[in-house]
Amino acid sequence: MKINPSNNYSLEEKLFVYMLVFFILLSVVSIIGNITVGFDFAVNYKWIALIVLSCIAFKDVIKKRHIFVFQTIITCIIIFVLFPNGWITSGGNSSITMSYAFLICICVCFIFQGKTRVFFLISEVLVVLSLIVLEMRYPNLIINISLEQQDLLIQMPLTLLAAAYIIIVFSKAYHEERELLRQYSEKLEESNQLLMKISRTDELTGTYNRRYLFERLNEIKTQIKEKNQPVIIIMIDIDNFKTINDQYGHVVGDEVLKRVSNGLISAIENKGFVGRYGGDEFIIVLEDTTVKEGAELTSKIKGSLTKLYDHDEIRITVSGGMAQLAIEDDIDDVLSNVDKLLYRVKHGSKDNILFEDECEAV
Predict the structure, then answer these.
(1) Where is each GGDEF domain found (predicted)?
(2) Which of helix, strand or coil describes residue 359?
(3) 322: helix, coil or strand?
(4) How far apart are CA 143 and CA 134, in angstroms?
């Protein structure tokens, strides 16, 4: 049967399948080696038992049945039966037995988790300590093998290769998972940036939406006293926008809104920000800007908007109001004042922006 654990297996389950194959291979090689060098056949009982147990487990594990049960049973048998038997029949505290002890430790750490892992690690330590004490007090119980060098040539390379393979498998998985985590982190960061942009901007115009506009205004209000910088708020409304919608349709109306928003952003450059207040109304917030500078900028805004269309059918003009936001001012009151100024212009000659105090065209 071809050994090819599917992608539905966890890394620990895949490793357990490969370990069963290793147990079978190691057992067969050890039996052949023991017979070849003339060891007593009794030393092969543990390998025969391991072959039988591994084959039984392999049959179910490759079908994803009773995996944890077999992991637990085989580990218990190895730690409490086969390893002590090998210690006693293979010369006691030798390089071979200790290499198996480390291999068992590696396997337990990679296959099990939580309390089960702790249980088997503590059990292995206690078993090794017990065997060492037993060997020290009752050395006659340990079977001395004069041809241990033959075993070293067979079993030592196999245990080293098995340990190396297990570490390589998990090392490769670690690097793959780390790379996947990096990619997911980048995608998550991109998604977060996109979500942040969506939550802050108006979908049609790309300017700040009303909710985030007020968040920024509140932030600026708290910074006015610290920075001691003047802040100007301008509210504008596109003149005759309903007529444009009715005459040319909402597609053209939407295009006008986009062009106006882009024109506003371009006109103020890096002096502040623009937000869509609602419908065809926009709020412009200018930081570190005096009233005089604000007045000059409104002239620039009006001039640039009239050039958005190069034909006489659509001519863009705006009406609006402008006020200064001071530390003692309430944001809602300032917005109410500029809205009243805008209303006055809309019901007058339009195409104008009034300043709060002077109520003169700027």
Answers:
(1) 229-358
(2) coil
(3) strand
(4) 13
Stated as kind and residue range, the H or E segment containing 183 is helix 148-200
Topology, domain 210-355: Alpha-Beta Plaits (3.30.70)
Asked whether 284 and 264 are in contact (CB, 8 A), the reply is yes
121-162 per-position pLDDT tens digit: 999 999 999 998 988 888 888 766 554 455 556 666 777 777
Provide the residue ranges of all domains of the chain, joining segments of one domain with +: 11-180, 210-355
Strand ranges of the sheet holding 281-287, from the earlier edge strand across to the other edge: 272-278, 281-287, 231-238, 318-325, 353-355
Query: Whose structure tokens read 């190069």?
Result: 310
From residue 222, how far is each of 186, 228, 234, 325, 329 by CA, in Å?
Answer: 34, 11, 19, 11, 11
Any bridge partners for residue 270, and if so which? Answer: none
Contact 224, 231 (CB under 8 A): yes
Cα separation, 286 vs 323, whole angstroms = 11
pTM attached to this predicted model? 0.56
